Amino acid sequence: MASEKAEMDSLKKECDGLRTQIEAARKAVNDGSMSSAAGSATDVGRVQLKLRKSLKGHLAKIYSMHWATDSRSMVSASQDGKLLVWDTFSGNKMVAVPLKSAWVMSVAFAPSGNLVASGGLDNMCTVYNIKSASPKTLRELDAHTGYLACCRFLSDTEILTASGDTTCCLWDLETGKQKIIFTNHIGDCMSLALSQDERTFVSGACDSLAKLWDLREGTCKQTFSGHTSDINAINFFPSGNAFITGSDDCSCKMYDLRSDQEVIGYQDTSLNAGVTSLALSNSGRLIFAGYDDFNCHIWDSMKGEKVGVLSGHDNRVSCTGVPGDGMGVCTGSWDSFLKLWN
Amino acid sequence: MPVINMDELTDKDKAVMEVTQLKLEVKLERWLTSKCCEEVKDYIQAGEEEDTLVKGISEDKNPFKEKGGCVIF
């Protein structure tokens, strides 16, 4: 027993030493903040977006939504046990997918527009073909030992999942089997975002850490700390060299990949609600963050200031998304509505 | 591909995993934050004019606007 304890102590000491080294290396390159870089930039002023449409159709809390690559279709998931595919231009429902398990937490649209995927407390990710006469279950991806928190398609043949079992996983949709398992988080994985070149992805977890992974090698390349509670949302900044996180600690942060650290935080003493979701405008200037306080607050990503709010939901904003063409923003809520703003 | 069940890892396994990961991360070459932040700012400024959510959109070009409605004479 004594030798076991000695071993643990030695490992812990090694960890502490390495952590100190990493912090020193980060500090050594920290020669300027985002505020100093942003100083000369023009203000965005007050961002006042109008509510253009309220999409009514779900009968219970909406947990997730995802835009199609055509910037027109959008899929939403609700614990009423349905996925709804919407034509956001007309506001019409195009497809309804009944779910085997109503406890859905995440939904995704494949880039092709042919498939959607969803999952939740059933620990599975189910993929549906929505182009057939009636929605057909293509695959049931069953191997996670915890809930499915997030899923994202790479193509019609590969999908990435994040799970409450603390792992992320890359699946082959042709075989229905796991290709690569990404292990390193010590808390439930809540969210993931794919890089544009699909060579890396970032994940946020309940261990309050964000991690950058090599998609093909299966390795964790970098770990980002700073949040003091669960990270619920994560998204790449459009340049691909930074990402934004949203947390239960009521703040959002921008982390830069190449300097390996947080470069700016977004928090306000008046905001005492956890961040559930986030999306960025196309230039990266605006961050739309959904909060437990029923609002979606808008942040100036460069100056770190709150510049607007999307108010109108009667319950928590659970999901937010900006389509590829950047023409608007969609918010989904526990109040069962989706709203489109621009 | 072996399935790693986090519940089955001992404290020692987790500590070894942590040390291994930190040894990897300590080697990273880090860029100056001033340069990185400048690049973020440059990226934003290059795309801001075309960013609908920043610049706004005219009614006739708005794909989400409510169609129909009444006209009061």
From TrEMBL, chain A:
PROSITE patterns documented for this protein: WD_REPEATS_1 (PS00678), WD_REPEATS_2 (PS50082), WD_REPEATS_REGION (PS50294)
SMART domains: WD40
Coiled coil found in the keyword field: yes
GO biological process, one term: signal transduction
WD repeats: 55-96, 141-181, 182-223, 224-265, 310-342
Keyword list, A-Z: Coiled coil, Repeat, Transducer, WD repeat
Domain of life: Eukaryota
Pfam families documented for this protein: WD40_Gbeta (PF25391)
Coiled-coil regions listed in the entry: 1-28
Entry's family note: Belongs to the WD repeat G protein beta family.
Name this polypeptide is given: Guanine nucleotide-binding protein G(I)/G(S)/G(T) subunit beta-3-like
Organism classification: Eukaryota, Metazoa, Chordata, Craniata, Vertebrata
From TrEMBL, chain B:
Keyword line: Cell membrane, Lipoprotein, Membrane, Methylation, Prenylation, Transducer
Highest taxon above the source species: Eukaryota
Alphabetical list of SMART domains matching this protein: G_gamma, GGL
Coiled-coil stretches: none
Gene Ontology CC entries for this record: heterotrimeric G-protein complex
Gene Ontology MF terms: G-protein beta-subunit binding
Gene3D superfamilies per the UniProt record, alphabetical: Transducin (heterotrimeric G protein), gamma chain
Domain G protein gamma, first and last residues per copy: 5-73
Major site of localization recorded for this protein: membrane
PROSITE patterns, per database record: G_PROTEIN_GAMMA
InterPro entries assigned to the protein according to its UniProt record, in alphabetical order: G-protein_gamma, G-protein_gamma-like_dom, GGL_sf
Record's bilayer topology term: Lipid-anchor
One Pfam family of this chain: G-gamma
Annotated localization: Cell membrane
One Gene Ontology term from the biological process aspect of the record: G protein-coupled receptor signaling pathway
Subunit text: G proteins are composed of 3 units; alpha, beta and gamma.
Protein role: Guanine nucleotide-binding proteins (G proteins) are involved as a modulator or transducer in various transmembrane signaling systems. The beta and gamma chains are required for the GTPase activity, for replacement of GDP by GTP, and for G protein-effector interaction.
Record family assignment: Belongs to the G protein gamma family.
Name assigned to this protein: Guanine nucleotide-binding protein subunit gamma
